[in-house]
Amino acid sequence: MTPIALATLRARWVTFVSTFVALTLSVALVSAMGLMLGATFNLPERGAERFNTAPAVVYATDVTWDPALHDPGTRSLAAAKGVDKDLVTTLQGQGRTVVDRSFYAQVSGQRTRPGLAPLGHGWSVAEFGGYTLAAGRAPNAADEIATGGATVGQSVTVLTAEESRTYTVVGVTKAVGFEQAVFFADAEAARLSPRVEAVVSFAPVDTLRSTVGEKALVLTGDDRHRADPSLAGDRDAIDNTETLLPITASVAGFVSIFVVASTFAFAVVQRRREVALLRTVGATPKQVRRMLLAEAGLLGTVASLLGCVLGYIAAPLMTDWWIRLGISPEWFSVDGSFSFWVWGPLVGAFVVGLTVALLGVWAASLRAARVRPVDALREAAADTGGMTRGRLVTGLVGLTIGLVAVALVGFVAPDLVLIPNAYVPILLVPILALALLAPVAVGPIVKLLTWPLGRLKGAGAMLVREGTLSATRRTAATAAPVLLTLGLSLSLLGATETVNEARDTALRSEVKADYVVYPDGTPGVSRAVVDRIKAVPGVDVIAPIMTMLYIEEPEGLDENDGQAVEPSELAKTVELPVAEGSLADLTDDTVVVPDLWGKDLGETLNIQMGDGTRVSLKVVAIVKATPGNDIAYLSMKYADTAKYARTGLARRAQIKVHADADRGAVDAALKQAIGGSGARLWAASEWVGNETAEARKINSLRQQVVLGIVVLFCFIAIVNTLMMATADRRRDLAVLRLTGATPSQALRVFAAESLLVCAVGFTLAALAALVNLIGLRFALTALFGSTPIVVPWGPVALIGAVSVLLALLGTVLPAALALRTPSVELAGVRE
Asked: Taking the complete model, does pTM exceed 0.85, yes or no?
């Protein structure tokens, strides 16, 4: 049957061009996203930076620690403790060693540069990172520093986690590309940070490894990069890409595969008259199936190859787009070499494309080949049996799964709505299920939508109505891309805006403060700044210092986020949703935990702090929390250990002004207190607005990427499908012309049918979105309280309008071109 397949491809080129384009673009999309995904597993390797010339580095870390499971900037307990002091003493007895103490330090007024961490070190470690002096000398006294961007003899204020202090610049260092360093005398660095980050040793490596054992890692060669701050910085920079790319790739890939499979199946359905003739002249069902599969195989092979080429070209362009949007770091790129991370995704995309083409045709060919020769001619005359048993069962199962998933999200696991990688696929299920069930819904929806037109004079309304009802397969196939386009837009945009609104409301209700002090060009607010704010009369201040709680469990340490706060200030400045207990009971020996931890009121937790100190804290209150915000509260007594697990800085300080205080005097005193501290004073309402705007900006970028790619493909599918459907209706055009319709009247009938198809797609999209948004409403109510559904009707209306416009173009243009052929010839010519 291969020669027949080749001949058919030449004869029905219009239909096959549409399926070819759909498959090519689908494979291009899948391969491009696959290449980008592969690039996240094959990030460019940097050489050693801070210890570039060090022979060996002893570095404390936990090899089982997975940074992907924790916030950027957090450390495992082993890394928090640093290199054990007894081990340092032992190493110093084996020959020359240099101790590195790494901690937050920043010259006041010098803003952090993107990707460069502001860090302090002792001067003795500078040589290993390639630091050289452009002017001056090395610091020797406790009040001396060497740094870049300053002048010799200048007095500057240096901010650290605990204090701000004046130092004299005695040396100016040349800039390096991996950190923004301030160098102190070694003794002063030891005072500021007792923790030892790493030890450079000149002892033989074998001896060194034997001495260190399991207490730390001995890094040599390129492994020394593990001790560089840029390693954590790179993970932080690529975090948005690694989070967003899988969900974008999965949704875009799934939608494109669904559209392509539907397009191929529709192409087979359009050819039922040819199949009828083949069966009549003696072709067996097996021969029909072989012919259709041969066509799909030939078309799929060429289209998949071309799609892989286009995807290879498009991947760098898409990567540049992500960089411009601010999602990916500037150094992120797709590997241009032909490594596994390049040919692997390309081969995978080719296999997916060819498989989808064959499966899309196979399912439809089974039904076409099973029809008896006599029935085949009867089947070719009408198109009313659009739903096969397999499609019906699949659609019903999918709809059931979608409803169950939405119900589970709404009533059992509401926190899933805050995890895009888990929630977006759930939104997709009802939409795809209704697309499968579309042939069943076409009749009732068309009758409902055209009922008001029944009283209109003329035959136009009747022709549109009956023409649509008599071709349920065609209507369902052409409505599916419209359904996907608007259904995803309504569900995704509505879900994003509604979640944003719920979070904004929760943040506004949580903040009781009048002012917020927020970092400005620094990674946090130091305790010295907080102490100056506390000295202002007439205010209460809370400045939580982020830390880690390493809770001892039978199965090992459970690492969780915590905040060290002043117990007396907690309830005054922050409104926390307490489920059990009381915030007033927070003391040096107690802790407030989120309900997501699964702890009981009154339970005692055995905890190790960042410096290894063991404490036992009793749970005195349990607060309601959401994923990503499941933080415990403990006394500020433990703030000194926070710099071991994190930076030791506060994210922000919230200030509540006493009712009897002079607001004007307080405002002036606060501005004076934070002057030159790398912080900014905000009115609480202004800060909340800025904070929510930043969150919305990130979510908006996610919308643009996911929805932009999917909607663009759906737009192409709308045009493709309608062009296929219209090209197959030349006989219908001829009948209209031969019965007296003018060309403009015929085009109006076809355009009206196209609008009706769009209306069917919009109706099904609204039903799918309604199911999704109702489930979302219940979920957010459980998480945040009563939450209204917010739909950005402007973008949704624009997407709908473009869908309608493309549908009209995909219908009217092929019909107008066909009308240029004489009606008699048109009636006798299929292609």
From this structure: no
Residues 318, 396: Cα–Cα separation, whole Å: 37
- Supply the pLDDT for residue 154: 94
Say if residues 496 and 703 touch (Cβ distance below 8 Å). yes
Domain boundary, last residue among 354, 381, 408: 381
Closest C-alpha among 128, 235, 142 to residue 185: 142
- Mark the ranges of the chain whose per-residue pLDDT is less than 70: 1-16, 68, 266-277, 279, 281, 363-364, 366-387, 453-463, 466-467, 469-471, 627-628, 694-695, 725-740, 818, 820-831
Is 232 in the same domain as 197? no
Query: What local confidence, expressed as pLDDT, does residue 440 receive?
Result: 86
Would you say 462 and 481 are in contact if contact means Cβ atoms under 8 Å apart?
A: no
- Mark whether 269 and 218 lie in a shared domain: no
According to DSSP, residue 196 is labeled -
| pLDDT confidence of residue 57 | 96
Q: What is the DSSP string of 287-327?
A: HHHHHHHHHHHHHHHHHHHHHHHHHHHHHHHHHHHHHHHTS
Q: Which of 381, 412, 429 is the last residue of a domain?
A: 381
Query: Starting from the edge strand earliest in sequence, which strands make up the sheet with 653-657, in order?
Result: 539-542, 653-657, 515-519, 679-683
DSSP-derived 3-state class of residue 157: strand
Residue 82 lies in a domain: no
607 and 708, same domain (yes or no): no
Total domains in the fold of the chain: 4
DSSP code, position 283 = -
In the block, which residue shows the tokens 């008259």? 273
The torsion defined by the Cα of 496, 502, 507 and 512, in degrees rounded to 10, comes to 160
Neighbours of 278 (CB within 10 A): 21
Identity of the amino acid at 432: L
CB-side neighbour CA atoms (13 Å) of 406: 23
Q: DSSP label at 380?
A: H
Residues spanned by the domain of 142: 56-64+87-222
Q: Residues 82, 196: contact at Cβ < 8 Å?
A: yes
Q: Is residue 78 part of a domain?
A: no
3-class SS shares of the chain: helix, strand, coil, % to 5: 60, 15, 25
Q: Tell me how far apart the alpha carbons of residues 557 and 489 are, in angstroms, rounded to a whole number.
A: 43
Half-sphere exposure of 263 (CA within 13 A, CB side): 36
584 and 498 in a common domain: no
Nearest Cα to Cα of residue 493 among 324, 321, 696: 696
d(CA 266, CA 552): 60
| Whether residues 360 and 314 fall in one domain | yes
Q: Residue length, the chain?
A: 831
The count of other CB atoms within 10 Å of the CB of residue 476 is 28
Domain assignment present for residue 138? The answer is: yes
Question: Residues 205, 338: one domain?
Answer: no
pLDDT tens string 757-789: 889 999 999 999 999 999 999 998 888 888 889
The span from the CA of 559 to the CA of 92, in Å, is 32
* Rg of the chain, C-alpha, whole Å: 34
CA 237 to CA 40: how far, in whole Å?
11
Could you read off the pLDDT of 609-649 as tens digits, one per residue?
998 899 999 999 999 887 667 899 999 999 888 889 988 89
My answer on whether 211 and 334 are in the same domain is: no
Asked if 661 and 706 sit in the same domain, the reply is: no
Pairing of strands 133-136, 164-173: antiparallel
Give domain status of residue 717, yes or no. yes
Question: In sequence order, which ranges of 41-110 are alpha helices (DSSP H)?
Answer: 77-81, 85-92
List the one residue out of 317, 322, 313 whose CA is nearest residue 238. Answer: 322
**In the chain, what is the straight-line distance between the N-terminal and C-terminal CA atoms, in Å?**
21
pLDDT score recorded for residue 831: 42
Q: Which residues pair with 632 in a beta bridge?
A: 562
Strand partners, 549: 560
Residues near 125 by beta carbon (within 8 Å), at least 6 away in sequence: 50, 98, 99, 100, 200
